[in-house]
Design brief:
With 439 residues, the protein is of the alpha/beta class. It is 50% helix and 14% strand. The strands form 2 sheets. Strands 6-7-5-8-9-10 form a 6-stranded mixed sheet, sandwiched between helices.
Amino acid sequence: MRRQDNQRNRGNDPEFNRGAGSRGERGLKENKVQKERCILVGIATPKIRPWLATEQLAELGRLAETAGAEVVQSFLQRVQQFNAATLIGEGKVNEVKRALEENDAKMVVFDDDLSGSQVRNLEQRLPGIKVLDRTGLILDIFAKHAVTAESRLMVEVAQLQYMMPRLTGAWTHLCRQHNGGIGTKGPGETQLETDRRMIRKRIQELKKKLEKIEDAREQQAENRNDIFHLGIVGYTNAGKSTLTNRLTGADVYVEDKLFATLDSTTRKLFLEGENIILSDTVGFIRKLPHNLIETFKSTLGVAAHADCILEVVDGSAPDYREHLEVTHKTLQGIISPETPRLRVFNKVETCDETRRNELLENYPEAIQVSAKENIGMERLREAFKEQLAAWHKKREAAAAQIKEEVESPWPAHPAESVSDKSFNSNRNEDWKEPGIYEV
């Protein structure tokens, strides 16, 4: 009893509590998750100009920061061709190793895709270091920002497709022999085959679920056939979500990070006495792997059903022309070339007069706006009204054509109106309907 009383008294003692509190605060600080320190590695080849490689490396840094890492140093190596074993030269690998030790970093991220063997070779030369490439980093961001069931399914499919070719050698510790020849197919190889088969089966299951979701989206698009639909597309972090919020008064999640929003969002906008629909889609980026584009086609399908495409470009970006090119290449085969398009240069509040004049001279049809500062919104709404009026005229013309075809008189002799030569090829011109005729 005395011991319990003493413990209770010590628990109420201010001096004791102050010490415990300080220890608790130190514990919280120690338990606070620290950012992973990482080093970036980019490569410039004769096909990739140095300035472009530098910009791509800077973009990789932004991707790393979005993923929650802290970039401590970057390397850019100029080579004639990629090294088959480690992508970069042996000397550069040693240089990166020293930088990792000096900066106490535990992760290195390459701007180009690594094969399974290259990852293993780099991990052997850099023991205890996590090795990632650009695709793996993007997938990590996708997994972090996926919210809906659809986006999670798409991310899992992409991750499994990325993982499959990198399974080689993961079970070599179980193999009986490694020298080839008879009897070399040990349990390690069997385990690899089992893993790949399980991954393929899982991918098929996920794709079937995605197909059902896509069918449901197409059904929703058919139900909205009588409403004007505007699809918003563009490079990542161009301000699409901010523009959607400004136009519709919605509260779509906005953050100054790459791929801050991954799911498509649909909002209503009251215009000219009627509601129109705005759909914001996932942004694009350089070096986006083809399998990722294929996986996220269902999300981009929202824009594929749109009656008009609003292409948002960051007007303040130094490489905005390449952003346009990346967007156009990504949308090829997804959006019909006949679909009307509006081009908007956003973030003009950060552009100087020279850049604004440049945009006006090279893209006179484009609209310069600032979703953040509410600049150019009225002109953009007027452009929406013009597209809405053109859409109504197109629908009226289509309805009139259908009405004309339905109400057109049926030919008196359908068989005689057939122009197919094969149908009348064996018919005698003197042939008459059966009956009694005067001779």
